[in-house]
Amino acid sequence: MSADSRAGRPGAAGRVLVIEDDLAVIRVVERSLRAAGFETLAALEGKEGIALAQSRQPDLVLCDIGLPGLDGHGVLQCLRQDEATRDIPFIFLTGSIAHDDVRLGMRLGADDYLTKPFMPKDLVEAVQARLARRRQITEGMQSKLAAMMGRLDLPTAASGARGDVGLPDRRQLEADVAADWRQRRSEASPLIAGVVRALDVDRNDARLGHVALESLQQQVEERIAAAAAAHGVACRAARLVGFGRFGVVFPPGVQLAAATAAMQALLQTLRSAYWLQGGEVFVQFSAGVAAGAAPVRDDASLRENLTQVLLQAETASRPAPGEARQSVGVFRDGMRAGPVENLRLDADLHHAVERGQLHVVYQPQVELASDVVLGFEALVRWQHPEFGTVSPAHFIPLAEQNGTILRIGEWVLWESCRQVADWLRRGFPVGRVAVNVSAVQMQEADVPELVRAALAAHALDPCRLQLEITESAVLHDLARAKAMIRDVRELGVSVAIDDFGTGQSSLAYLQQLKFDELKIDRSFIQGVERHSDRIAIVELILNLAEKLGFTVTAEGIENEVTRDLLTSRRCQLGQGYHFARPMSVEAVAAVMSGRRPGMLLTAADLARAARGGEAATRSGGALPPRDASAG
């Protein structure tokens, strides 16, 4: 995307992709960058981040090193090997910087490192400095290229060099295709179209310069125009919106296999060398093809049909993460289009509650000294009928932006209270449930009244409910947070400060707020036993909380060593994959129903249930996938 195309839109300072498996860190980074004028994208896993980088072309990538599955080094290596993403500035986020990690990262092409926890000011300055450096480099290259082009005296569009070879635009394409189908009224074959995209031109437009791009565009259009009538298949071709995007529509009667072969031949033609900047330049292209239903013969229906097929063809043109595709992609049901998907998700979030697409999963919270499960954290999930399971890292920020988080947050509170009341009536030792409250809810909703209504509707004892409020939300409006916490605690509901340690002044406000519990952010907990600096930070928080009378929950416990270290430091509660992943309502009921009346649920019960699930998987059953947004 060119710099000019960003003017006047949100995120005019640039687009930043955040790849981080901690949803709390994502929220902090996104709020900090958006306040500085950046647009943000987020991914919880490495492969998801690579796909976003390839489809959305961010100006900069922020990536955690310790990601589940493909780690940060693997992400960087994939991006640097891909022609479309190899020049994107890349900053690592890390809890600590080991010498070997730095050496490896620099060899792979990292631009900078930022240690967690970080101040929002440091984050913004690091991003701005890296992008400013990139602009200096591209502007210098552009100046040199302009001087070279002047010496070469290449013709420009203004001088009439394009002649009559250029391709028509989208409007002319629609008119031509409509005429073709009107002449073949008896033809019932599908409408088949292809899309060709230049992978690296759009990203490098500032580096190449306007004159060079015009010359390249002309040469590409000449090749497409010549190929459109070749290979035994006459077709229509046109420029689409955006540089380096072209549509190809095949005439009635052409089969998908023949169209795919023609697109493959065109792809190979376009990948041959171009004469540009006084020498050979190679440009990478991708292509896709799609077949739609035979169009209705009125022009309006045909335009709508053509738009849909072109969108599907463009979706098929995008290689899968890590795939260096050399062949033409063919659209199949289930493929997802990034920008189109985002538009759909934004609209569908407004109806997700009433359409019954949301559900709540519950992650146990364990008392470390006794192994007793004291409660569960409620986590919302979205099962979209078309796109499947939508990552919380994707839809929660979207819901906060479009305001649907107010309705979703109210529903989660109501549903969690209903479910806990039902479990208690069945004699299950459920303890309490912790429900998250977003920053938008704190600013725009009457949270105490919502809590009062939910408790009354389900006859739930207030001691069974805890609200979790993020540290950054508290710091955004300290006075409002104080009043809300006071009113909620007067109802008998406890309050926890979530993601502690990621805010701007983590220790300054503790004595100003009357809350019950701190949750140490899992960025401090994961692998804490391997990092002396993290141990020191955790000990500081635990000692301070003990003096001030706060209970502490450690998030992100993933192994016995971490659990033992925290227990030896008098941390009271723990949560993480070491105990259990987020559990469905049915899974919670199954593990509780095996307890005799009066017996408490323990971590050992959770472990036995997990082993039983693994055995079921080996014998043909299935476990739910690892949930990257909790732990």
Q: Would you mind describing this structure in some detail?
A:
By secondary structure, the protein is of the alpha/beta class. The chain has 22 helices and 21 strands. The protein has an eight-stranded mixed barrel. A five-stranded parallel sheet has the order 2-1-3-4-5, with helices on both faces. α1 crosses α5 (120-152), α2 runs parallel beside α3 and α13 packs parallel to α15. It is globular, with a radius of gyration of 28 Å.
List segments where confidence is low: pLDDT < 50 over at least 5 consecutive residues: 1-11, 144-164, 614-631
| Rg from Cα | 28 Å
Helix content: 40-55%
Inertia-based shape = globular
The biggest beta sheet is recorded as: 8 strands, mixed, barrel
- Report how far the terminal alpha carbons are from each other: 36 Å
**H/I helix tally:** 22
* Total DSSP E strands: 21
Secondary-structure blueprint of this entry?
Blueprint: E1 15-19, H1 23-35, E2 39-43, H2 46-56, E3 60-64, H3 72-81, E4 90-94, H4 99-108, E5 112-115, H5 120-152, H6 170-182, E6 191-198, H7 205-208, H8 210-228, E7 236-239, E8 245-249, H9 256-270, E9 274-276, E10 279-281, E11 285-292, H10 299-317, E12 329-330, H11 338-349, E13 358-367, E14 373-384, E15 388-390, H12 392-402, H13 405-425, E16 432-437, H14 439-444, H15 447-457, E17 465-470, H16 471-476, H17 478-490, E18 494-500, E19 517-520, H18 522-525, H19 532-548, E20 551-555, H20 560-568, E21 573-575, H21 585-593, H22 603-618
Parallel strand pairs: 1-2, 1-3, 3-4, 4-5, 11-12, 14-16, 16-17, 17-18, 18-19, 19-20, 20-21
Antiparallel strand pairs: 6-8, 6-11, 7-8, 9-10, 13-14, 13-21, 14-15
